[in-house]
């Protein structure tokens, strides 16, 4: 437990250091690391962990799979439509990203419900309309609970509590935005409630688009 906490602290210190370097113009970042495990240790030369195969249903009743995002950079998060806490902020910031990249066909957004027993396709559709979600840019998906939770925990490493407890019965609630490259590798993790992290995400997308 202590080892995991120290690694997480180290990761966030590194993120702050990156942000300071970017702001001050000191040796600007030219490439992003890969994140291959839940402790988020950055590795620049060792891409290993790809987002696993998935199949969910979006707000239009369409099947969404890995191939939907083939040759696209995308940002993933987890939410539920009735959430009164952090989800409205997450949705607001995803909306900001949608607006920023509305004319950029390389960038897509993917929001997974963590309450699939409630968040049906019609409810996701209604939520999307209320929040001006463009279904060509931003997929709100539901599906099998076990598959969604496995994807959050083992695919995106988005459930910090699970990393600590390994308790599969826990409800997932995470503020993470996860940046995934065109090959399906995780290249960044951000606090989706913080404006400073949204700006850092945008900077990192620019870097990622310039990678060869």
Key traits:
38% helix, 9 strands, two-stranded antiparallel sheet, 6 helices, 212 residues, alpha+beta, 19% strand, disordered N terminus, seven-stranded mixed sheet
Summary of the model, kept short:
The chain is built from 6 helices and 9 strands, in the order H-E-E-E-E-E-H-E-H-E-H-H-E-E-H. By secondary structure, the chain is an alpha+beta fold. The strands form 2 sheets. It has a 7-stranded mixed β-sheet, sandwiched between helices.
Structure notes:
With 212 residues, this protein is of the alpha+beta class. The protein contains six helices and nine strands; from the N terminus they run H-E-E-E-E-E-H-E-H-E-H-H-E-E-H. It has helices at 2-24, 87-100, 121-130, 145-155, 160-165, 195-210; strands spanning 34-35, 42-43, 55-58, 63-65, 73-79, 107-113, 138-142, 176-180, 186-191. Strand 1 and strand 2 form a beta hairpin.
List the helices and strands and how they pair.
Layout: H1 2-24, E1 34-35, E2 42-43, E3 55-58, E4 63-65, E5 73-79, H2 87-100, E6 107-113, H3 121-130, E7 138-142, H4 145-155, H5 160-165, E8 176-180, E9 186-191, H6 195-210
Parallel strand pairs: 5-6, 6-7
Antiparallel strand pairs: 1-2, 3-4, 3-7, 5-8, 8-9
């Amino acid at each position: 437990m202590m080892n995991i906490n120290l690694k997480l602290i180290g990761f966030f210190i590194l993120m702050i250091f990156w942000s300071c370097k970017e702001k001050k113009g000191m040796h600007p970042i030219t490439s992003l690391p890969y994140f291959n495990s839940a402790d988020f240790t950055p590795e620049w030369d060792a891409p290993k962990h790809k987002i696993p195969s998935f199949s969910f249903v979006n707000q239009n009743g369409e099947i969404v799979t890995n191939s939907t995002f083939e040759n696209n950079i995308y940002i993933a998060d987890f939410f539920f439509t009735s959430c009164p806490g952090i989800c409205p902020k997450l949705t607001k910031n995803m909306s900001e990203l949608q607006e920023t990249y509305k004319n950029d066909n390389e960038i897509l957004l993917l929001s997974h419900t963590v309450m699939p027993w409630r968040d049906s396709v019609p409810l996701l559709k209604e939520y999307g309309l209320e929040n001006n979600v463009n279904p060509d840019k931003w997929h709100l998906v539901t599906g099998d609970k076990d598959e969604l939770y496995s994807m959050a925990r083992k695919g995106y490493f988005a459930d910090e509590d699970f990393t600590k407890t390994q308790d599969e019965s826990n409800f997932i609630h995470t503020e993470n935005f996860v940046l995934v490259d065109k090959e399906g590798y995780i290249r960044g993790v951000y606090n989706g409630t913080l404006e400073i992290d949204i700006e850092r995400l945008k900077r990192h997308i620019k870097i990622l688009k310039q990678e060869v």
